[in-house]
Amino acid sequence: MANRTAAELDRHDPLAAARGRFHLPDGVIYLDGNSLGALPTAAAGDVRHAIVEEWGQGLIRSWNAAGWYELPLSLGDRLGGLLGAAPGQVAVCDTTTVNLFKAMSSALALRPERSVVVMDAADFPANLYVAEGALADTAFERRLVEPGEAPQDLLDESVAVLALSHVNYRSGAIADLGALTAAAHAVGALVAWDLCHSAGVLPLELDAWRVDFAVGCTYKFLNGGPGAPGWIYAAHRHLEAGARQPLSGWMGHAAPFAFDRGYRPDPGIRRFLCGTPHILSMRAVAAGLDTFAGVRLEEVRAKAVSLTTLFIERVEDGLPAGTLELVSPRDPDRRGAQVSFGFEHGYAVIQALLDRGVIGDYRDPGVMRFGFQPLYLSHADVARAADALVGCIESSVWT
User: Fold this and answer.
1) Which residues pair with 143 in a beta bridge?
2) How far apart are CA 82 and CA 359, in angstroms?
3) In the annotation, is 303 catalytic?
4) Given this model, what pLDDT does residue 135 score?
5) Has 347 been annotated as catalytic?
6) Is 219 a catalytic residue?
């Protein structure tokens, strides 16, 4: 990598044309796609059409005429193509938090004779909070994987569910999803994976890996826009076995327009819906998914490795050894589309980078995070961002 220039790497980039699918402000290098993806160029027009034509002219007729009613499932099937999921197993709906609650509750109900949920103590705090809610007033208990422990070491025949994030939000470290799923199944447990930081930048094979449940958002690497709805995956085998989520809302009913007094869950993935879909947000999600047209996730992954490796090398070559702590794995096979550096004055550096046209983000204590969406970033962008980071530290912007 060090012997190849950014310009040379960009000349051989099979994804270079995808950059034109996004609106990116002039003079800005955007390294925060792991928090909020950039705006697809088609999104504004698509949402405007939904407002002016579908809502403004079609009014309530658009639930059928414009396909509003089917959006959660039609988008789910499209998203399933990026997740390695056959049709009928993914629904776009609600939020990641709500969907994780559904997934965990469903998995727990399928293993009522067991009492333990295994989670990572270093996971995104909201996931741990959800577990508290899902386990409240039950006989289940939460068992946390502490730093230095391996999730496999906490698995035994008392475990009902292993609930982990595929890519850690703080470090960008990738968990071995396939191996951990197999390890959980070996002791009779189910899995519920959070794929917020991997969907759209890592090749996934949920069906082939026999994942039980998975959830994620659409506003990070899937470019669905701020506040865009989340999604949930439930394997066909569990739908056929009667897996049921606790939020028995109108849209999950087998016949919502029969207006029954009692609840009958839909026989398929629709049973994981709750209330009325967020139509305008879903139109933006559709535009985000359009940005992946003709794109192979293997190429996205290869470019993410190239971008993150270039960034690490250029930053570390520009500073005295030990200036920054590389929080992310150095091994690219264990690193997602994110690089995190630890630095005492990280917040001040991130703020100073904004003035230099580079957008990253900061997490206490002292972690600077940089997310790399290969569809709209070039190696030249990354080289300039690395040089800007080095310049901020060399000039002691925190003083």
Assistant:
1) 118
2) 27
3) no
4) 78
5) no
6) yes
